[in-house]
Structures are given as structure tokens and as C-alpha cells.
Amino acid sequence: MRYPPARRDMSGGQSANGKLLVVDDNEANRDMLARRLTKQGYDVDVAVDGPEALRKVEEQVPDLIVLDVMMPGMSGLEVLRYLRNLYDRVELPVLMATAKTDSEDVVAALAVGANDYVTKPVDFPVLLARVASLLQTRAVYATGPSSSTHLSADGEASPGTVLDGRFRVERTVGEGGFAIVFQATQLSTGQPVAVKVLRSQRATGDTRDDHRRFENEMRLIGRLRHPHVVRLVDYGMLDASLPTADTWNEVSEPGIPMEELLSLPGELDEPTGRRQRKRLPYIVMEYLEGASLDSYLKEKGALPVPVAVELLLPVASAVAEAHRLGIVHRDLKPPNVIVGQGPRDSLHPWVLDFGIARPDDENDDDSFHRREDALIGTPEYMAPEQARGLKTDEKSDQYALGVLLYESLTGRRPFRERSIGELVQKVARGHFPRPRELRPDIPEALEAIVMRAMDPLPDRRFSTVESFAKELLAFAPDAIRGRWTGAFASVKTDPPPAGQQATVRPNPSPLALPQVPKAPRVPREPRPLGGAPQSPSLVPPTRGDQMRRVAFGLALVGVAFAALAAYILLG
């Protein structure tokens, strides 16, 4: 059924020249939306289910589709997935309609390729504004030579570039070997967002792992609902246009004859100006005002104890929420924590970058995560078990939180080796200076908490991140302690592990090695009066005897080497 557009003056920037397709199996919803959109001057057609919608798109492509998620037979997500194989987001915008409580449907729709969404019952002014915005963006790109986004060879986008027809780039805020992060403006809402785009070099060859890493991050952020975890806004595939060759004057050298250049061995680049299209996954997150913890510590240096604890408590709470959902972050480090300003001059940190996080119950046979366990992570913040390539769990994240607290208190990392090999070995063995050796005013009890969280043996750490955080409350400012006491009130206090005191372990060595309990001394049998001495081989040696024998043996070896060296030098 078609609803002819009403004739009316569309003042205020709303375009009356738009053909819409409303797809909904509920007749009342379908007719209500169609009639109200028609009154706004749109040419509206309707479809009762997915197959009919696809037939109508095949007959004539609309300017925009309003698509219900829940439909019998062929769901809205299935329809959208089929359409995205034929049309990108700019060529055919799709606005999804979903129930207000179905956040998983929203995340799934954005992942498949929806441009935007509205919740039911539909707030018509909101729907109307989003329809107008999407059509306006489509109209701008319809007049251009291509709907693809032009990027530089390394994936950079200049300010003003519109990504996927919906996000205008303002500036580049971060980049690495895996992805680039832009500050952008969401055109439909005018809100600032952060857009993380896969590097174009990663989009060549077999990129299944890279794409899965993006999908993994999107899925996990979508599941987390916590005030100190970055919020997912959108997700999709960017149809990017990339240059295939440098310009001639950049690769040529003055003074070399053309015939000599042409005779040089090698293959010629494609002609200047040629571009290739690649589909790059991207994630859109809320834009966070603040600095990374890395930058914050470089500016501030070692933090006062109350400030360091104030920063760590909300981070620990966010990580604990991830653990409650069975998610292990696996890459907690200062660059992945943003420090912003909270109410009444308090600090508000956010945890981000769940790119290599994994569900704790993930199948160990998953080759993708086996490679991730072996290859990805930051050695300075890896738990010893992670450095050894063993399976990671919640206690691995606890170790990384301990490193964050250590660095916040001392102003330096516990491990500073330049060689990756030496660094990994030191991490695996737990060799690092105790915090009070670098800063004696740190309370002994706080040092004990840090050392326990960073114990090389996972079983000797706190049972949970909440238990770790609860121990820190005593060192928080009064206002912060009051705010977090309720969150950790039900957490049981962990007793110290065997051989470890409640305050500071009696280990004067700067190496954070686990305490090994001494072997019990075996009493010697009394020798009969006047009898022969008992054979030493029959008396089990004590641990002290064993250590003395080892030391004596090493001394003999040293003497032998010294004598040999003297003989060689003098003879």
C-alpha cells in the first residue's frame, strides 16, 4: 500500500523529497508511522514482512527504510544483513525500530549496519529528526562522485572528512599499529564521539583475526554497563577509498634521465591518482574529556597516596564488573585509562580498549585467542603467567591493577629493562624493587597490598579484584571512602596466604619472590654414652645444612677457577 505525500511547506530545513519504506508486521504501528510521515511530505510505501520489503527494494530503491527488528519469519536483522551486501549505509540508510529494553538488539543492529535506531513506543519527533538528518547526509553524498570515504594511504582522515556518511572528523586523537582514533561529530545528534578505525594496512590479505578483534571489542563494550567503562555508540564497516601509489615527483629523483629510471629493476606502481576501495571496520564510542593515565602521571609524577587510591578504586570497580560478566581485560595499562574531572573536583577515570579482552569461559581450542594469548599484551603490565604464555584469568587483571597502583605511587614502572627478553624474564620471575625502596613514605600496609596484588603466584594474590579494592579503602580520602564503602561492603576480607603477614612480608630482598617456608629441623638421635658417632648419612640434612653445602661447593668452584686463571696468566 502506498501513501501519497501531502503537499505542505517544509520550512525549517526538512526535505519533502524523500521516498521511505516502512517495514513492520504490526498493522497499527505500520499505518501510524506511514500516515504521520506522509503528513510531513514524504512519499511512503509499506511492507508487512522481510520478503516483501526485499521485493520492493528490488523494484525501486527507497531513500530510507524504517525497519522493525522483531518480525516473524525473516527478522529485521536478517533483512538488514541482506541489504548491506548490496548497499552501503550512505546509499541506503536504514533506521531500526526496537523495544526500549532490547539493548542487545540495538548493538546487533548497529553491528550489522543500521544507520541509527529508535525505541518503541516511537517518539515521533525523534524519529522525524533522525529521518531528516539521514536523508540530508545521503543527499550531500548523492551529489558527489562516490559514497566512499577518502583516506590517506596510512588510513588518516583530514578534518572535515565524513566517515560512513555519519561522522565528521574533527581531529586525530590517537594512533597505533592496529588502529587510528578520531574525534568526530555524529551528524544525526551533533554529539562528539570517538571513532576507532582499523588501519588500512591491516585490511590486506587474511584479516579475519583483525576483524574479529574489532567485533570482540564491540560486543564486550556493548555488554558492559558501568559509569567507569567507555560507552559504545555505534559500530560498522567503512567503505574507504585509498590511494594506490605516490605521485611521480615524490618517487623520482632530479637529474636522473627518464630512460635510466625506466631501466631500473622492479615493478612500476599503478598510475598516479588511482584509488582502491577497502572495507574497514570501525567502532564508535562516547568521546571522553580528559587525559590518559600515562599522560597524567608524566605531568604529575608520583601521586599522593589518597589521590592514587582515589584513581584506582573506580578502575577496580569497572574491572570487577567485567569479571562479574566473565570478561577478562588482559591489557590494563595507563594508556587504556582516561582520567577526567568528576563532580566537586573529584577524579573520574574510564577504562577503555577491550580489543584483546576475552570471555573467561572462552573455549581454549579457539585458535584466535590462542594467538592473542601468545602475541598481544604489554610486557610491563603483564602478569607472570601471561608472560609465560599461560592462560589468563581475573587474577591476571588484578596483577595489572597492582602495577597501575605501583606506578601511580612511585612515579615509575616496576620493570624498566630495555630488552624485551630481559623484561619478560623479570616479569615472569617477579623481580622488581619494592615500592618503599623508591618512596619510603608509602605506608607499610599499603606496600603489602601492592605486593600481594603483584605476587608472582596467582594463588597468593587477593581472591577477587573487589577484595583488593576493599583493602585500599583505608587509604582513600574520606569522601571517596564513603562513596565506595557500600560498593565493597559485602566483600569478604581475604586472610593473608600462608607464610605472608597481614602487613609486610618479612622479605628484605628487593626481589618480590614468594616466601618458601623453612623445612622443619629433624632431631638427631641421641648417641649412646661412649658409643661410636652415628653415621652422618643416616641423619636427614636440614635445609640449613643443604644451603651451607651448596655455598661451600660454589666456593670451591670459585677457588678452582681462580687458581686456573692464575696458572694461565703466570705460566
Summarize the SSE layout with pairings.
Elements: E1 2-3, E2 19-23, H1 27-39, E3 43-47, H2 50-59, E4 64-68, H3 76-84, E5 94-99, H4 103-112, E6 116-120, H5 124-142, E7 149-150, E8 162-163, E9 167-175, E10 179-186, E11 192-198, H6 208-223, E12 232-243, H7 248-251, H8 258-263, E13 275-286, E14 291-292, H9 293-300, H10 305-324, E15 327-328, E16 337-341, E17 347-351, E18 358-359, H11 367-375, H12 384-387, H13 394-410, H14 420-429, H15 435-438, H16 444-453, H17 465-472, H18 478-488, H19 543-570
Parallel strand pairs: 2-3, 2-4, 4-5, 5-6, 7-12
Antiparallel strand pairs: 1-3, 8-9, 9-10, 10-11, 11-13, 12-13, 14-16, 15-18, 16-17
Helix pairs in contact: 2-3, 4-6, 10-13, 10-17, 13-16
Helical fraction equals 25-40%
What's the end-to-end separation, in Å?
110 Å
- By DSSP, the count of extended strands is 18
Compute the number of structural domains.
Answer: 3
What percent of residues are in strands?
A: 15-25%
**SSE-based structural type:** alpha/beta
- Class of the largest domain in CATH? Mainly Alpha
Biggest sheet details: 7 strands, mixed
Mean pLDDT over all positions? 76
In the sheet with the most strands, the strands line up as 7-12-13-11-10-9-8
CATH architecture of the largest domain: Orthogonal Bundle
SS field, number of helical segments:
19
Look at the structure and name the CATH superfamily of the largest domain.
Answer: Transferase(Phosphotransferase) domain 1
Uncertain spans? 4-16, 245-259, 261-273, 361-375, 502-542
Shape type: elongated
CATH topology of the largest domain: Transferase(Phosphotransferase), domain 1
- Rg computed from alpha carbons, rounded to a whole number of angstroms: 32 Å
